[in-house]
Amino acid sequence: MAGGKRILITGAGSGFGRDAALRLAERGHHVIAAAENRPQMTGLIEEADRRGIGLQVENLDVTDALHRRQAHAWDVDVLFNNAAVGEMGPLAEIPLELFRRVFEVNVFGHLALAQGFARQMVERGNGRIVWLSSIAGLTTNPYLGPYCASKYAIESIAQAMHDELKPLGVQVCTINPGPYRTGFNDRMGDALRVWFDREKSISAEHFTTDLGVEVRLADDYGEMTGESQKDPEEIVELFVKVAEGESGLFRNFLPADRIEEVKRQQAAIWDLRQ
Predict the structure, then answer these.
(1) Closest CA to 22 of 3, 2, 50, 1
(2) Which residues are marked as active site?
(3) What is the pLDDT of residues 87-103, one digit of tens each?
(4) In this predicted structure, what is the pLDDT of residue 204?
């Protein structure tokens, strides 16, 4: 593609970020695929070589100030704040260090990264910052409180940033995936095994969430199943559309068949009783 953009994608070692980085590089953009660890970097390099495409692969932990300082030297047109971690479990019981970790990665690390790039973008009068939010940033469900809280924070940050930076030439938007089959939702269930004790829990047995997974807290270690999760291809295509400026929307939500349901759930909060 003539006049390709310079695009940084955090969390490009897996999931949406990995596939979008490769797809955008295939379309002629200069993509900086940032992964948290060496095995993910190796996998990206090998896959790019196999496809015969150029891909700049870098190590970036968004919670590390030195890593962020290095990233701010890359001079990008589009920043995808895509990396994320997830924890689930009852808020009355989850260890606070796990809750804090979710916010350090999903919120604070990415805000610090975005601040540096925002300054550069304002100085040149253009640029785009994309926040990977979620359906979990629009609706809240039992046992997904830690993850939902971080995505709600992202929604507020992105909206404020949009209003503040739009007059200065910088575009800010969100991508809000529903339940997609990337393994992320299932790993949240696996993480519950580290600390959840069924015998000591005060929580209910199970609940089906808006991420399209059933959480069974009564099992020995907890379990997440995701039979209703969708093929992530349409989200990868949405990454491309947003990167190339073809969307124009602040909020980019998929799958489309969940939008009205989400709006109904948001409206129902006004009549929720104690």
Answers:
(1) 50
(2) 147
(3) 999 999 999 999 999 99
(4) 64
Q: What is the pLDDT of residues 204-213, one digit of tens each?
A: 666 666 666 5
- Total-model pTM: 0.93
Distance, CA of 189 to CA of 86 (rounded, Å): 9
Mean pLDDT of 124-130: 98
